[in-house]
Design brief:
The protein is α/β, with parallel strands linked by helices. The chain contains 35 helices and 31 strands. It binds adenosine-5'-diphosphate and magnesium ion (MG) (2 copies).
């Protein structure tokens, strides 16, 4: 029989697939002997079954009942028992943390009888009991019964007036319970369910269902979490932070998740239940102040945090509750952190002897490194600071102020940069948070929803800027000194310092980029990056080259650690004033005229190549001969037609128009381009090869590699190769001759093509385009979002290499190419060369190098190191 329920004593942290992160870690903490309220976990298998079949699997109810019995035994009270009730929470928890995306219901087991029993349990504390009851109806109503949460919020606000929720007395809360029950009846036509076991059963199904809530789906897509994992459900005996001022609830990190700085970091709220801290309902106090309030619990908490860090060997975040001076641990996990913190913490842990430098490399990602390369605000610029909040997620963001998620989405779709400004965010704001450049809130601490989600997304966020009065309804906020900022006004927010400026502040390069540009590492972060990059370089097997067409790019590529150029396009060598020569070439009616145009191009291109070889300083340079169709270099057909229709037209214009018409193609991507040009236009490729050879002779140590684009058949390559080899031999220059593999037929006939090629370079943009039959320029805007919705792919195949299809073609080409020519040199030069997941694929299939844009080189170096250190099937998330 399948087992669907695990007691906390049965699980451990390695069972995340089954128990979800929360359940697995609750079990881990239980087994470490930490104070965790007892409970059990219903597996994500059960959830998947329920979501597929619409009913819970056979045997589940029975198994849950048995575990509940055992829990009741252990606690010495029964669920919802009238005179002395056991209460439980029903909590979601999937394999990957999805903060606040799914549901949790607290205080299950309360009803009109057991509320009195609860009061008695707490020494006659009626206020606490009614507060717990109103919370149950509110959470249950919203999550399980699907009632608009605002209805409850508004009723609570109306009762509170200007007071805080803690100011409400028992009588008022009892009244509120009646009001809430009224809302439930009015909205559902039924009474609030009073049977404790029924409450629990319904809550479990609601948690299952919350896996497919729209915001959860959106979050998964954003974070690339698979859609079919399902969530586990945790049933946990309640402990209470809302019994009075000797109770409370808090959230903490074992180090600063923003900077990595060691030391206590968290928020605490007296006399409150869990959700209150993250929801930013009341303002929290810094965790340090708990020392003054309850020194014993504070010291115990510090001890536990140390235990957890040593045990997990990483930054942990925790959720805890203190019930009348007794500390309870309610959650832990390896904590999300900013990119900067990730690098600092990884090296700190090495220095503390908790992890090896190998592990440190696997603890950071290329995406995080990319974030550190983002620009920041120019320190010297004139700025008009209007307020300061908490530095919740670093970076510099500039944009127009918007006050609603919907508006953020709307403006960003029009291509505008926006800053989403809210009093506090909630999970329904997710779409707007994704759309915005930055997020600014006036309430809530560094562990508030806005802060946690923004850090996870690497988005700039300033939170808890309490000096701001945000009015969503009026579409404006006010800052001290009478500053009024309305929707559409531009502000700049600094997620690193927490500062908020009016207007646009100019941005400058990051310190990490300056380091890659050659600056000495100075601060802790740059030193950490330096150590990790050096180690990644020492362990990686893949080489990293650059896609660089100009001497400037080539020089930057060298500074960033590029070991050569994997793709030097030559198109630009036909542009600008040289278009004239292309026209002459196309119009030439005699061999002499054509040769004159080619000769002129040759000497210009020779100078271009000379500079690039110099910049690359003895490293290989793979030069791709001209690839695009020639009409791209000629005047536009419409402009030309108009001109020819007037009197001003010259004879040349008329001839050009005829040529442009002749060269016009319905589908230029599949037309006369690449190797086909070389075969059809006499002397064109030869001119380029000669220019390369002449340039190489001028630069000692130059290592040109000549790459023929768009080859589909070995015969194409052979005839080009013969001519090129002859020119090279005549010039006394050595160069590899190879081809791009970008047409599926080339991949499928790689064994033959390798006879004529000394290297392959996978042109995965075209290869993806042709393997899928997607015209890149059209499909992405036309229907990719629909395809993503339908789950046809989780991420655009132009962004991350499609392993199954395009990857298969690459594998075939690698294997068959090497079978013909064992020393065949293999690389990739599409956009994918700088994409973390695709770099891992390239490592796995045994390529020799990846080539990417200069700014992606550090990312590729790091990911190549990580690929060498991790199993081939480990994910890079
Ligand atoms: P999320 O995944 O959104 O953080 P949780 O399941 O962790 O949701 O629940 C949110 C909060 O509710 C917890 O941080 C904790 O403070 C409170 N909570 C959950 N279960 C219990 C419990 N058994 N006793 C007391 N508080 C609880
Ligand atoms: Mg939680
Ligand atoms: Mg191509």
């Amino acid at each position: 029989m399948a087992k669907y329920v695990y007691d906390f004593t049965e699980g451990n942290r390695n069972l995340k697939d089954l128990l979800g992160g929360k359940g697995a870690n609750l079990a881990e903490m239980t087994n470490l002997g930490l104070p965790v309220p007892p409970g059990f976990t219903i597996t994500s298998d059960a959830c998947r079954h329920y979501l597929a079949a619409g009913v819970v699997p056979d045997g589940l109810d029975q198994e849950v009942a048995e575990h509940l019995d055992a829990l009741e035994q252990q606690m010495g009270r029964r669920l919802g028992q009238a005179d002395d009730p056991l209460l439980v929470s029903v909590r979601s928890g999937a394999k990957f943390s999805m903060p606040g995306m799914m549901e949790t219901v607290l205080n299950i087991g309360l009803n009109d009888e057991s509320v009195h029993g609860l009061a008695k349990q707490a020494g006659g504390n009626d206020r606490f009991a009614w507060d717990s009851y109103r919370r149950l109806i509110q959470m249950f109503g919203k999550t399980v019964l699907g009632i608009d949460g605002d209805l409850f919020e508004h009723a609570l606000d109306a009762l509170k007036g200007k007071r805080q929720d803690t100011d409400l007395d028992a009588g008022e809360l009892q009244g509120l319970v009646e009001t809430f029950k009224g809302i439930v009846h009015e909205q559902t036509g039924k009474d609030f369910p009073t049977d404790p076991r029924e409450q629990m059963r319904l809550a479990v199904m609601a948690v299952f269902d919350s896996w497919n809530a729209p915001r959860a789906i959106l979050y998964r897509r954003q974070e690339r979490i698979p859609a079919d994992l399902g969530t586990a459900v945790n049933i946990v005996a309640m402990v209470f932070g809302n019994v009075g001022n000797d109770s409370g609830t808090g959230v903490a990190f074992t180090r600063d998740p923003g900077t990595g700085r060691q030391g206590i970091y968290g928020d605490y709220l007296q006399n409150a239940q869990g959700e209150d801290v993250v929801a930013g309902i009341r303002n929290t106090i810094p965790l340090e102040e708990l020392e003054r309030i309850d020194k014993r619990s504070y010291d115990e908490l510090l001890g536990i945090m140390e235990t957890l860090e040593n045990h997990y060997r990483d930054l942990c975040d925790i959720e805890f509750t203190i019930e009348r001076g007794k500390l309870w641990m309610l959650q832990t996990r390896v904590g999300k952190r900013t990119a900067a913190a990730a690098f600092c913490i990884a090296t700190q842990l090495v220095d503390q002897g908790l992890i090896t430098i190998d592990e440190a490399v696997t603890r950071v990602t290329g995406d995080q490194l990319a974030q550190l390369m983002f620009p920041r605000f120019d320190g010297g610029a004139d700025k008009k600071k209007i307020a300061k909040g908490m530095n919740a997620s670093p970076g510099a963001a500039v944009g127009k102020v918007v006050f609603t998620s919907a508006r953020a989405v709307e403006l960003s779709e029009r291509g505008e940069d926006v800053i989403l400004v809210r009093r506090e965010t909630n999970p329904d704001d997710l779409a707007g948070m994704i759309a915005a450049k930055g997020i600014l809130t006036s309430r809530g601490g560094k562990t508030s929803h806005a802060a946690v989600v923004a850090r996870g997304m690497g988005k700039t966020c300033v939170c808890g800027a309490e000096e701001l009065e945000v009015s969503t309804r009026e579409g404006r906020f006010t800052a001290p000194g009478g500053v009024v900022v309305s929707e559409g006004d531009v502000i700049s927010i600094d997620g690193t310092s927490g500062e908020i400026y009016l207007g646009e502040v100019p941005v400058v390069d990051s310190a990490v980029v300056e380091y890659f540009e050659g600056a000495e590492p100075e601060d802790e972060l740059v030193k950490a990056v330096d150590r990790i990059m050096s180690h990644a370089d020492s362990v990686r097997r893949l080489g990293v080259r650059a896609n660089a067409d100009t001497p400037d790019d080539a020089a930057r590529a060298r500074r960033f650690g590029g070991q050569g150029i994997g793709l030097c396009r030559t198109e630009h060598m036909f542009l600008g004033e040289r278009r004239q020569l292309v026209e002459d070439l196309v119009l030439a009616s005699t061999d002499e005229a054509r040769q004159a145009a080619l000769d002129a191009l040759e000497s210009l291109q020779k100078a271009d190549f000379t500079e690039i070889f110099r910049a690359m300083d003895g490293n290989p340079v793979t030069i791709r001969l001209i690839d695009p169709p020639l009409h791209e270099f000629l005047p536009d057909i419409v402009d030309l037609s108009v001109k020819v229709a007037t009197d001003e037209a010259t004879d040349k214009d008329r001839k050009l128009l005829a040529a442009v018409k002749r060269l016009h193609e319905q589908n230029p991507m599949l037309g006369l381009r690449g190797v086909r040009l070389g075969l059809v236009i006499p002397g064109l490729f030869a001119m380029q090869v000669r220019a390369i050879a002449q340039a190489a002779k001028e630069v000692p140590g130059a290592r040109p590699e000549i790459m023929i684009p768009l080859v589909a058949a070995v015969q194409e390559l052979e005839s080009v190769r013969e001519e090129a080899a002859k020119i090279l031999a005549e010039s006394g220059v050595e160069a590899l001759i190879g081809t791009m593999i970008e047409v599926p037929r080339a991949a499928l006939t790689a064994a033959q093509i390798a006879e004529a090629a000394e290297f392959f370079s996978f042109g995965t943009n075209d290869l993806t385009q042709m393997a899928w039959g997607f015209s890149r320029d059209d499909v992405e805007s036309a229907f990719f979002s629909r395809y993503l919705d339908l789950g046809i792919f989780g991420v655009s195949p132009f962004e991350t290499l499609d392993r199954e299809g395009v990857g298969r073609l690459i594998k075939i080409a690698v294997e068959e190419g090497r079978s013909t020519r064992p020393d065949l040199h293999l690389g990739i030069c599409g956009e994918h060369g700088g994409d973390p997941d695709s770099v891992h694929f390239c490592h796995d299939v045994g390529l020799d190098y990846v080539s990417c844009s200069p700014f992606r080189i550090p990312i590729a170096r790091l990911e190549a190191g990580r690929a060498a250190l991790t199993d081939s099937d480990s994910d890079t998330r």
